[in-house]
Specification:
By secondary structure, the protein is mainly α. Helix content is 65%, strand content 1%. The two termini are 30 Å apart.
Length: 385
Amino acid sequence: MSDQRASRELFTIEQFVTLSAKINYQLSAHALRKPVLLSLLLGPTEVHTKDQEILLDAFDVLQTGYAEDRRRLGTPGILHPMRTTAMIARAVHEPTLMHLLGGLLHDKQEDLTETRLGSERWNEMQLHFGRLLDRLDCSSAEQLTRRIDVLSNHSETYEAYLGRILDHAYEMPDLLHVKLMDRLDNTFDIHLQHPGITKFNFYRAVFDMLFLPNFGGVTMGRFHFMPDAREGVMLLSQLFKDLIFLTLIRKEKLDTLDSTTRRLFIGLAVAGIREAQWLALEIFNTCITSVPNQREILLEVMQYCTQGGIEGVHLESRGGRLDGMLLSVFAAQIEGKRRELLTELFEDHERLALMVLTFIVVFASYINDPEYTVRGIGRDGMSAQ
């Protein structure tokens, strides 16, 4: 199963980190050579000369808009749309210009507002955006502005926002492709701060914990560390968002919209598995080092999953330590307390291990069972089953 899953992996952690580093190196050069950056982003994708000029105009929009702004983890703000586009160019067969512009500009309305940039920088950015639109014919310009609008969260709930993207999936399938790659980039982003685990076999470790009487425990070396609370909360948040997005796509049977969507759907599920595996191994390497305790946690997750725990959203009264968690996260999101709740979860190492292992089972179920879905997650939020 693991070999089959690896063959469906869109990007390994190493490939992602390498691509990110190359893009960041070009962006940090004293004199940015935009044609070189464009070549790096496009990779194997061939683009007509006219479209290359349009993409270079999009670079000007992003450069002016993001300037020296940083993301929450300290990486350049411009890196995320650049990296998302580079992955689209590598994962989508013959991506359209709208794929590439959607990747570059998908956060324009959310990140690059006049309030955040100030009037002077915002007006300069809009001049660059106007130049980009002038290069397009009227129909293409309208298509691009519509896509940017649909890809923007207008202070909606996350489920309603995703639902709006799904509403346009048949008309504009590239929107779904862009959003899946956006989720993939956000899922991997935490890993830029930490080394990967690809040389350590998660499934072998689980087997050894369960069956070897004298197993000495997980030993990952000196340079493996638990993410700090801020990073851990961000990773948990991304995994919850991935769960919601995969569930909504599957419920509306859009994972089979086309072969590209299917590949990206599976690729996002695999990425979720990889990140959850990494966190689980770090927990067993650093926080819960007793093999008997590890074995108890694994068996508890197995029992929870085989007895229907991953089939739907459940109330806490169901009795399992994970029951009620999805509802709690959803309620905390509505109340603006999600970070506080996820911080509490991250600091409760046993419960965190249970949740992370369950994520692995859920994402694997989306890969291996074409009928699997989580009941109780919908466009209107969550409800217990």
